[in-house]
Design brief:
globular; 13-stranded mixed β-sheet; 31% helix; single chain; 8-stranded mixed β-sheet; alpha/beta
Length: 823
Amino acid sequence: MSQLAGEAAGLPPSGLPGLDPAWSRLVPVVDADGQQRVFHVLDRTVPDRTVPDRTVPDRTVPGPDERQQPMRTLLCVHGNPTWSYLWRRVVAAAPPGWRVIAVDQLDMGWSQRTGTVRGLARRIDDLSRLTDALGVTGPVVTVAHDWGGPISLGWVAAHHDQVRGVVLTNTAVHQPAGSPAPSLIRLARSPGLLPAVCVRTPTFVRATTSVSRFGGQPRPSAAVRDAFAAPYATPARRRAVGEFVADIPLSDEHPSMPALRAVAESLPALADTPVGLFWGPADPVFSDLYLRDLLTRLPHADVHRYEGASHLVTEDAPTFAADLWRWIEARVVVPSAATTGDAAVPLMPAGAAARHPMWRDLEERQDDGSIALVERAGHRRDVSWALLSRRVRDLAAGLAAIGVEPGHRVALLVPPGADLTAAVYACWRIGAVVVIADAGLGLRGLGRALRGSWPDHVIAIPAGLAAARGLRIAGTRILAGAHDALTRAGLGAQWSMADLARLGAGMPLPPEPGPDDPAAVLFTSGATGPAKGVGYRHGQIEANRDTLRALYGLTADDRLVAAFAPFALYGPALGLSSVVPDVDVTRPGTLTARALAEAVESIAATVVWASPAALRNVLATQADLGVAHRTALARVRLLISAGAPVPAPLLREMATLLPNAEPHTPYGMTEVLPVADITLAGIEGAGSGDGVCVGHPVPGVQLRISPLDADGQATGEPIAEAGITGEILIAATHGKQAYDRLWATEAAAARDPGWHRSGDVGHLDDAGRLWVEGRLAHVIVSAEGIVTPVGVETRVEQVPGVAQAACVGVGPAGTAAVVVVVR
């Protein structure tokens, strides 16, 4: 590219959405060539009036003995082809005591057009000279995006003593081995295209905001898109856009490769520095591939992936600015166990009984020829304890032999049954982390969940492996069951489970994982937004099993019909013979009365666990039952139904089929289940109230309520007072460890140390029972006050002729009209 005459620095035009002209200033700096250059920056200081501080111009009147407090600085560095406008929301949200500096790099934004080529090393030096001119001395937190990331990290390496935290968004310091550079970058770098798309026309500039999106939400407004493009109106002002693209080092011979390599090699020095990685995984340029690379270099980093967000994550994620400042407060200003994920409920309290891992019952029953598991889907298959124990042991050794290591993630796309059970327990035994997402999420939701969990290996049935390939899920492919080499090759599978079991036969097993080691990532249903991965340790999974055993008095004499997919895996750990009925697990409402009865008959079951949808269809199809079926069902002693609210009339009707079964309905969620439990008698004894009574907290669970304010937000401190409506808070030894790669979500849920904010609203009554009144997001703020939906819906559904009701608010908060929709 030919040299172009420079243009002087200037100020942004007025009226750009969200940009306060008072933040702009021009800063002269002498560069490495001895030339004076002028930067445009956004520079905002928010005085902390609670602490006298001579470094804050607008401060309280100093007293004679006041101590000086250094001003904290957030240094924001944009990439190509944006400018400091990228950080306007962060600047606007700055809390007291902070100075926020958002840089326009030279030749970019409204800074001076120098007419010189400025590679990575020079830009790092430019930034250092600018912060010197601005008097930045620390403490500093940096935040950077795109190719501002390496520039910012270069500055961090040179100012390590000043740095207190580092935040990166959609950037890279290395091209991962074996992966091509992003296609958009390769295309833009083409010799014939680079001048045309980056300089002569605004194609590259406009493309940056055109890929901005967040799920189904619209991209930024035309005014915002125009604001991003405003500094790049002419070819002369776009010259550096092309130079930035050309400066991306894609080969060892590139002039900027030494500087980039030095930046990458500096990252281990941040091992004791808080690091946050806030990412848009739908980015066509800096995909999760680069996030994974950064995590290998910064394994202690906190991660938040904004599912659905693209390249401009600062635009796409509406909560980015608030999340960033929350992270800085939690990690840098006042590190808190509640938000760092370091405050775990003790998994093995002092004086507790010896640990009993999930696979121990299998080992103890390895010589037991009685039935452990029965499959009924398609054809009956009986699996003895001896066979199941041997299969788990051999498969575990085989997995270890092919390189499945402790901490590796194994995605399981296998329906409930013997293969899934063997795979889960084998993974647990060698310390691998199982990743389980409900097929009911649909192909798109399943793909989002699995891509977000980054599996190292995939075990799947043929349809699952085909889906994994179509969804571009990475990892070693293992085919569930036994299949020939041609089938494996056609599906891209390197192994089958049968191969691995043969390979592992007689081989030694690795050491057992401990209670604090990760065990599972279980995905939520996606009913309240994109499905979230919920991380569990071994000790938490074991505590969950022990809670269920104690709550329902389960013994080795019990036998379980597991028609509720999440708990189809618990039978072996509980030492129970189990059967999975003939039902489509993605559609529990397809369970028929005959299928349930035949499952009960097959093992003389004493316990049935099924969802409300399954029970409704069982009742609707009971005409198909014969006398023998009804006789078998009459032997069931316990009915457990969960997964959705269970109306008392449904439980009463089930008594006609299971006359000797005590109906229980536990309340809980993927993050912790069970939380509370109630019987049909308990529901009837509680009477009517504002919401649905879900019973007393189960042993090991404590409940609190965070009262709602006038705006319907749960802002109050946790209390145990009866009759106060608010968000339900839960503490439990069998609760989750943390949301997976969702730092901000976890920070919000764990805002109160030791408590999980459930997102449900409700109250405690005088007897200590919990009443659920709906979701926090569905609270209605009317002119008359706060209205929670479930109580209204329950009362309306008692009106003859009403099958179902939904209570919603119509209109703005504070004046919303309460509307009930019925069918």
